[in-house]
C-alpha cells in the first residue's frame, strides 16, 4: 500500500477523496457513459485545484488518459487525437529524457550498480566491448564514470569499445564527443559505435553484425528500461465474447475499489496484483535468443518493477495509480530539496511519465508498448530463454545504496531479493536491477523459474 510521503496535512481530506473518484471515473469510462464520466472528471478537476501536489498532477494526467480512452472507440475520434511524437519536438523530448536521468535517484543508482557489475565481470579482460541497449535511457554520465573506473583498474585500463543504440543522431554525436574526450584524458584506447534505431526495430537475425560484435572479445550488455517494449502482443479482445466478459469484470472491480478506498491516511489502498504467468512473447524470445548467441560475459537488466502488462484494464489502472503516485512523490521530493529544478520535474512528469501513463491506460494490443513487469516475471523470461542469474556482489549493491542515500531522501529504499536489487519509494517497488549470463550447458533456453522463494532484506 502506497502512502504519500511528502503531502501536507492540510488537504488530506481532499486527497483521500481523489482515490475513490478516480476509480469511479475509470468505471464510468469502461461502461462507456459520457454523462457519468463528465461528472467524475469535473470532481477530479475540483479536487486537484485545491493545491499543487504530486498526486494532484498525476490525477490530471490520469483524467486526460481516461477521457482519451472513452473517446477512442468513437468512430473518427481516435484518428483526431494527436500522437505525442507529433507535438513534442525531438530536442525538447531529449532534454526531458536527460532531465529524468538527472533527477531520478533510481536511475543514478541503477547506473552505479550496473557499472560495478560490469567492472567485476571484466576484471582481467584486455578488450572490453560494452553494448548499451538502453536507447532513450542512455546517458553519457554512466559511461564517463565507467571509463574513470577502468582508468584506476589495477594493471591498467582495457581497450574499450562502446556500442550505443539510440534514435537521436544529435544525442549520439554529443555522446561520442564527450566520451572520446574523457578517454583521451585518461589515455584509454576507445572506440564509439553508434547504431541509430530503437531496441524493437533491430534485426535480431543479424544482431552480431548490427552491434559490430567481434568473436573472442569480452562483451557486457546493459539494457535499462527498454526490454518491456519487446513484450508487445496482439491481446486486444474488445470485439469478442471474451472481451465483453473482461469489460464486465473491469466495471465490477473498479466499482468495488471506488467503494473501498476511504481511509484518510492513505489515498490508494488495494492489494498488489500478481504478474500473469504466461509464455514469453515471440519478439522478446527472439531478442534473448540473439543475445544468448553473442555469449556475453554479463547482461545487466534494469526495469520498472510493476505489473502494467495485465490484460484486464482494471488491473493495469490500479497498478499504474499506485506506481506513478509513488514515482511522482519521489520526484516531488527531489524538486522540493532543489527548488530550482521544479521546471525539470514538470517537464519529466508531462513528457516522459505522462506519456507512459497514457500508453498504459489508453492503448490496447500492439499499440500498448509500456508493458512493465515484476522482477519474478523477468526471471522467468530470462530462464526460459537460457540465461542463468548472476548474483549482484555485495560491493555492487553497497555502491548502489550509497548513491541512493546521497540524495538525502528518507523515502528512498533498497531491497535485496535473491541477489537482485529492488529500488523503492517507501514500501512501493519502482525499479529492479538484475544480472544474467547465458547458460553454458543448454542452448534450448528451457529452464525452471529460478526465483522460487523471494526473501527481502532492507539495506
From TrEMBL:
The keyword Cytoplasm does not apply. A motif (VHIID) lies at residues 128-132. Residues 439-459 are annotated as: Disordered. Pfam families: GRAS. Keywords: Transcription, Transcription regulation. Residues 362-437 are annotated as: SAW. The keyword 4Fe-4S does not apply. It comes from the Eukaryota. Belongs to the GRAS family. This is Scarecrow-like protein 3. It comes from Urochloa decumbens.
